[in-house]
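Before we proceed, please read the two lines closing this message. Tell me what the C-alpha cell row says about the fold.
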Amino acid sequence: INEPSMGDFRLMKEMGVNTIRLYHQPLKVNKELFRDLYNRFGIRVIMGDFLGKYAIGSGASWYPGTDYNNDAHKKNMMESVMSMVSEFKDEPYILFWLLGNENVYGFACNANKEPEAFFKFANEVARQIKTIDPEHPVAICSGDILFLDKFGKNCPDVDIFGTNAYRGNYGFGYLWRQAKQETGKPAFITEFGCSAYAQGKTPDEAEKLQAEYHRGSWDDIEYNMAF
C-alpha cells in the first residue's frame, strides 16, 4: 500500500524490456507516448500492419475475409502499409516493420488456402516499403513454421522471419534450424506463452508450470541468439 507509484514503463524497463510490438491499426497510435517511452527508458517499437488478418486493412468482410488474389483488397492493404511507413518512418522509436499476425492460420483471410499468394504479396509490400524507407528492416509475423518453405521461396525481400510459436516448456525444438535451412534469414519469436491456469492443477502448481514454460522458452531463445 505504501509503495511509491512507478508506472508501467519503468516496471517494463526494470524487468529488461527493450522493445514492444505494436500495430498501427485499428486504433490510432499515441506518438507522444511512445516518444516518451523511448526518450526516458530507451524502449523501441516494432510497428506492424495486420496485412489483411481479421480482414483489417483490406476492406473485406470477416467472412469470407481477405483474399490475397483480389486486386482491390491488395490495393487497400498496400495503401494501409505505406501510410504507416510514411507516418512513422522518422520516429526515433521505430526498430523495424512487421507484416501480419499469423495470417497463415486463416482467420478472416485465405492465407491458409493460398499461402503462395499471401507470401508473394507480402514480398511485394516489403519491396515497396524499401522504396521510401531503406533504413528499417521488414519482418513477417507467421504462425509457427506453417508453409515455411513457401515463405523461403517467395519472400526474398522480407529481411526477418518472425513467428508466433506455442510449443512447450522445452523451448522451440528444431524451429531455429528449420528457419535457417528454409529461409537463410534471421528468426525471432513474436509470441510465446502458456495459460496461467492448468487443468487439474492448483493455482500454485499452475503458476510453477507457467514459470517453467517461460524459463525453458527464454533459455532456448537466449541459446540461439546471434551474439
